[in-house]
Design brief:
It holds the Pfam family YbjQ_1. The protein has a single domain, classed as 2-Layer Sandwich (Translation Initiation Factor IF3), CATH 3.30.110. The protein is about 30% helix and about 35% strand. The chain contains two helices and four strands, in the order ββααββ. Strands 1-3-4-2 form a four-stranded mixed β-sheet. The protein starts with 16 loop residues before the first strand and ends with a strand. The relative contact order is 0.30.
Length: about 120
């Protein structure tokens, strides 16, 4: 049986709400703090690269690389939330991920968004 947490992620904090939308239904934006981001760069493991190369010949999901990307995204997200919290935010609006090659040495994952203070709408 596959553990779903190996292949997925998402918000897991109670004090900072993270959304991909401009606003949060039922809440008003009291203050925009500004851009925040969380970044991680992961080097490529030669063993997993060889395994992925062989697997790509036969087709199918590259599970080892999928797990690594999930871990990278979750770490970037954790750092994003830490930055927002440190700046006094209780929400991150318009959260996005950007993934790119890091000079052929690894993969860069950046989670970014707009830190804000929100409160329930009256």
């Amino acid at each position: 049986m596959t553990d779903i947490s190996d292949y997925g992620g998402g918000q897991h904090t109670e004090d900072v709400l993270v959304v991909t939308t401009n606003d949060v239904p039922g809440f008003r934006v009291d203050r925009i703090i500004g851009e925040v981001f969380g970044l991680t760069v992961r080097s490529r493991n030669i063993g997993s690269q060889i395994g992925a190369g062989l697997k790509s010949l036969a087709g199918g999901e590259l599970r080892g690389l999928t797990k690594t990307l999930v871990a990278s995204r979750n770490q970037a997200m954790d750092r994003l939330v830490e930055q927002a919290r440190a700046r006094g935010a209780n929400a991150i609006l318009m959260m996005r991920f950007d993934v790119s090659d890091a000079a052929g040495m690894g993969t860069e994952v950046c989670a970014y968004g707009t830190a804000a203070v929100i409160s329930p709408a009256s």
